[in-house]
Amino acid sequence: MKVYIKTYGCQMNERDSENLAAQLKLRGHEIARTEAEADVFVANTCSVREAAEQKAIGKLLRISHKKKNGFPIIGVMGCMSQNRGSEIVKSVPKIDFIAGSRKTPYVADYIEEIAKRRKAGIIPQDPQKGERKKWKHNDAIINIEDDETSHNLIKLHDFSKSQICANISIMQGCAMKCSYCIVPKTRGIERSRPMEDIVNEAEILANSGAKEIQLLGQVVNAYGRGEMPNVQGKSPFVRLLEKINKINGIERIRFVSPHPSFFKEDLIAAYSSLEKICEYAHLPLQSGSDRVLREMRRPYSAEKFIKIAKALKASKEIFSLSTDIIVGYPNETEEDFLKTCEVFKECGFDMAYIFKYSPRMGTVSAELEDNVSEDEKERRNQILLEMLKKQSLDFNERLVNTSQEVLVESKAKRGLGNLMGRTRTHRKVIFKAPEELIGKLVSVKIISAGVSAMDGVLE
Ligand code: SAH
Ligand code: SF4
Ligand code: F3S
């Protein structure tokens, strides 16, 4: 089978899709480069905002209109499957399988099973041919059950793609209770993988040329919480970082997304003691107003957040901080928003994802009136985006005339013969150099800075 995988949502979804692609290849299938050539279309979906779900539904419908004699097989996996389950059949009647977020490792089985049926001539009737009023979907495979071990199976990598910067999912689920967030429902119970499995995966990646490891989890720094002990004041997450730091060949370590509440002394200290941890942290603020943070059930204050941000910045000469912000949470006043702007400035984020609040059915805040108008959400969004532009440019300008260690990732999209790499602070650098340097660490002198990238010359 030729399978096209369309991924929506976060890096954990990207990672799940990669695992599926690798598994399909091991079983002799191919990954289609275009939708048009695919026998199977899989959407790996996101539910975090309403728009993300709508986008996936629209896509699935467009693909299903092209269905002929049961092909392409159409399936949906990930968060929307978990969130909506069999209800998806109502929106996309010709769907062949719906796999919940704990069923990723079994999607290849579902594809093979449906393919077997279709090839044997078991093809539901197409309503457009008028033979039936409804697509007879009772052979669709729908499984959104929990699975206690499936998180341990997300460990295959697609080595036909660059693994210079490789991702490892170290846990699944989320046990936090942020009032606005659907993720605890869509990703289920928080479960961590055994430390030795993760280290083993990192070693395999290092042996095949990976230079950077990024650890993934919805609350990545809560890794092992309740399942593994603290040892000499060090959390399981910090102990895992120590082990990865020892792996030969790995030069850089990153992780997303840590939660401010679990950003304790031991983790801040690790930035100084473990040389491979990059001078970069993604630290989701959500709001700078203590009142809104309380409403959101984020158990920290703006002051506590700023303290962590400052401790991180003080630990290195230069440190990059990125964040997530939600604007227009129910009852967010101008005063609340201005507090967010203040903290945004004080922390000097040089990268940020700013979201307009979107009520999600089943969450606590969905019970509240979504009473900040769309126009006002947009206005607040634009103000923060303008601030971000300036802060991002300021950050990059500070690097002009300095020498930076750059990990060369790929050819650049712009400029003939240019390569693209990133600094330890995760800033993009474009420079001219031979392609053989892809995958290597090089020294680059920064010569000019823009908002989203810098230009440099190889030293
Ligand atoms: N686990 C991560 C992020 C998960 S979702 C964390 O806690 O940081 C990514 C981001 O989407 C969140 O940080 C939040 O800023 C945003 N988000 C989540 N639910 C949202 C909603 N209902 N409306 C708008 N943005 C939302
Ligand atoms: Fe959602 Fe909060 Fe969990 Fe992040 S920590 S995934 S925002 S519930
Ligand atoms: Fe979206 Fe699920 Fe990730 S809701 S953000 S794909 S965990």
UniProtKB/TrEMBL annotation:
UniProt KW Iron-sulfur keyword: yes
EC number of this enzyme: 2.8.4.3
Known cofactor(s): [4Fe-4S] cluster
Keyword flag RNA-binding: no
Role of this protein: Catalyzes the methylthiolation of N6-(dimethylallyl)adenosine (i(6)A), leading to the formation of 2-methylthio-N6-(dimethylallyl)adenosine (ms(2)i(6)A) at position 37 in tRNAs that read codons beginning with uridine.
Full protein name: tRNA-2-methylthio-N(6)-dimethylallyladenosine synthase
Annotated signal peptide: none
Residue ranges occupied by any Radical SAM core domain in the UniProt entry: 160-394
Protein source organism: Intestinicryptomonas porci
Gene name tied to this protein: miaB
Residue stretches making up the MTTase N-terminal domain: 1-116
